[in-house]
Amino acid sequence: MKKLAIFDLDGTLLNTIADLAAATNHALSHFNYPTHETEEYKYFVGNGINKLFERALPEPERTDKNILNIRSQFIPYYNIHNADLSRPYPGITGVLETLQKRGIKLAVASNKYQEATHKLIRQFFPEINFIEIFGQREGIPAKPDPSVIFEIMQHAGAGKEEVAYIGDSCVDMQTGINAGVTTIGVSWGFRPRTELESYHPQHIADRPEELLEYIK
Questions:
Q1: φ/ψ of residue 10, rounded to 5
Q2: With contact defined as beta carbons under 8 Å apart, do 158 and 3 qualify?
Q3: Tens digit of pLDDT for each residue in 130-154?
Q4: What is the DSSP letter of 113?
Q5: In angstroms, rounded to a whole number, what is the distance separating the alpha carbons of residues 176 and 141?
Q6: What is the DSSP letter of 10?
Q7: For residues 208 and 152, what is the distance between their CA atoms, to the nearest angstrom?
Q8: pLDDT, tens digit, for every residue of 2-39?
Q9: Could you report the per-residue pLDDT of 66-97, keeping only the tens digit for each?
Q10: CA 216 – CA 36 distance, rounded (Å)
Q11: Which of 9, 55, 164, 203 would suit a FRET pair with 25, their CA atoms being 20 to 30 Å apart?
């Protein structure tokens, strides 16, 4: 019996790729670096924004200083424009509402920085009472380190066998494995189904409604 469902954000609950691409391209253009097509960003995201900037920069330019320069332009732009095109995946809101009605505790564990994670969840899922909304925070290792999962589990009073972790990428699959919890991949996100399959999660959902079968 599951007591707690922890969700990734980007590519799992929300399709955020267009806004992430626009903000990164804005920052790259400011420093006269080449930009990228939106589809390319599906392979740049997942490990936090500094890693996103490193991947987006030309290889010889991937220095700490240049990553911080891109960050300085990205954050103010993204804080204003992070919901321009981002939307919940069709059906996901209803799934969250059903899980909530069933008494399952819900939480978010994202590698997106904390301010944007909290804002987007509150904006798009105002009716959902997440027990925790965690993005990347100072002093807490990013996923796939399982620290954030353990922190949420402790708050929920849930053991490993009572927890499902849901995400769309190899980072998420490895996070679930590292935490020792039931891991569910979702194929509607940013990465191909084959990437999820290679990590052998307990389940892969092709539609949000399938999550209701796997989280019981």
A1: -65, 125
A2: yes
A3: 999 999 999 999 999 999 999 999 9
A4: E
A5: 15
A6: B
A7: 22
A8: 999 999 999 999 999 999 999 999 999 999 999 999 99
A9: 999 999 999 999 999 999 999 999 999 999 99
A10: 41
A11: 9
